[in-house]
Write a structure and sequence with these properties.
Layout: E1 2-11, H1 15-33, E2 36-42, H2 47-53, H3 61-66, E3 70-75, H4 83-97, E4 102-108, E5 126-132, E6 136-145, E7 153-159, H5 162-178, E8 183-188, H6 196-208, E9 215-220, H7 221-230, E10 237-240, H8 242-255, E11 263-267, E12 275-279, H9 296-309, H10 312-326, H11 342-357
Parallel strand pairs: 1-2, 1-3, 3-12, 5-10, 8-9, 8-10
Antiparallel strand pairs: 4-5, 4-11, 6-7, 11-12
Helix pairs in contact: 1-10, 1-11, 5-6, 7-8, 9-10, 10-11
The structure holds 3-isopropylmalic acid and magnesium ion.
Length: 358
């Protein structure tokens, strides 16, 4: 029997609730599927680790993750530590250290979910946003000088390399080709940002020549927000820069009913390193420790983890169980207007998996 080594990193806030829930669900799906098992190792990195050790994760932490088949991550963020410290000290350290350059964010309106758009049927909103995950606005290049003085200066430089742009576009075209509609929207801001974004447009046109089966169009990021609201059915696969896609994916999640449902995969498509799967909601300190967190974003991320491992049948089985549970209003958590707890939703998904296996 195949055993997959999974690192779990709950991180901070509700990450500590949803990651254990995800682990239970992965165990249940393995039991229901047969043929494979998981071996988990938990890493207590994040805000508490920072308070004890002065860093978000150990300096040699990547080495401990290196041999894993995948990483399940919760969230990083602590009310008492600056956000840029928690982000760069943990999540970005892993994403950039393992060159997980493709961030994939599917969005659908799951059964039973009340989405805010009036004229949007569930079948009109079935998107995957591909976010460049290694450079651009998150390159970390810049600096500050003369702090506190009137002449203080600060820069954040967005770095785009041809290699970085070409590999994410190629990934997006391949993903678009694998989906039924074979439709890709390339998002930029190449009217205002007249260097790197113009290079994106050029590289997109070049890469497109290798994908004659894919219909593609271009959209400026501001116009894209309006198109997502007004013409959702005109969109299928989307590719954008690190920051643009960060913003668009929050809008996408909200249009699909809740940030609590949305999943993410941070992929190294070349599989040189482990990939990392996480819900896109943050640490949500306002509800932490109360058992109110929606674990569905983590469960859907587990579906993506299974797909990445090549366990397609198990991934379908888990997605089916999730959708059966979201279709039941009594099993909605507070973010969806319901009163169910994290534990109740987790139990329901596990029970559904066991029942479907019989
Ligand atoms: C996301 C999040 C992060 C990001 C935050 C927590 C820094 O918003 O994954 O979309 O901007 O990358
Ligand atoms: Mg975001």
């Amino acid at each position: 029997m195949k055993t997959y080594a999974i690192a779990t990193i709950p991180g901070d806030g509700i990450g500590k609730e949803v990651v254990p829930a995800g682990r239970r669900v992965l165990e249940a799906v393995a039991a229901a599927s047969g043929g494979f098992a998981f071996e988990f190792e938990d890493f207590g990195w994040g805000g508490d680790w920072f308070r004890a050790h002065g860093e978000m994760m150990p300096a040699d932490g990547l080495a401990a993750l290196r041999g894993k088949d995948a990483i399940l991550f919760g969230s990083a963020g602590d009310p008492h530590i600056p956000d840029h410290v928690t982000l760069w000290g943990l999540r970005l350290k892993i994403c950039q250290g393992f060159d997980q350059y493709a961030n994939v964010r599917p969005t659908r309106i799951l059964p039973g979910i009340d989405a805010p758009l009036k004229r949007c049927r569930p079948e009109d909103l079935d998107w995957v946003i591909v976010r460049e995950n290694s450079e651009g606005e998150y390159a970390g290049v810049g600096g500050r000088a003369h702090q506190g003085h009137p002449i203080e200066v600060a820069t954040d430089v967005s770095m785009m390399t041809r290699v970085g742009v070409e590999r994410i576009l190629r990934f997006a075209f391949e993903l678009a080709r694998s989906r039924p509609r074979r439709l890709l929207t390339v998002v930029t801001k190449s009217n205002a940002q007249r260097h790197a974004m113009v290079m994106w447009d050029e590289v997109a046109a070049q890469v497109a020549q290798d994908f004659p089966e894919v219909r593609w169009d271009k959209e400026l990021v501001d116009a894209m927000t309006a198109r997502m609201v007004n013409r959702p059915a005109s969109i299928d696969t989307v590719v954008a820069t690190n920051l643009h896609a960060d913003i668009l994916s929050d809008l996408a999640a909200a249009l699909a009913g809740s940030l609590g449902i949305a999943p993410t995969a941070n992929l190294d498509p070349e599989r040189r390193y482990p990939s990392m799967f996480e819900p896109i909601h943050g640490s949500a300190f306002d509800i932490m420790g109360q058992g109110l967190a929606n674990p569905v974003g983590t469960f859907w991320s587990c579906v993506m983890l299974l797909e990445h491992l090549g366990e397609a049948a198990a991934a379908r089985r888990l997605m089916q169980a999730i959708e059966t549970v979201t279709a039941t209003p009594a099993l909605h958590t507070r973010d969806l207007g319901g009163r169910a707890t994290t534990a109740e939703v987790t139990q329901a998904v596990c029970r559904q998996l066991a029942a479907a296996a019989r």
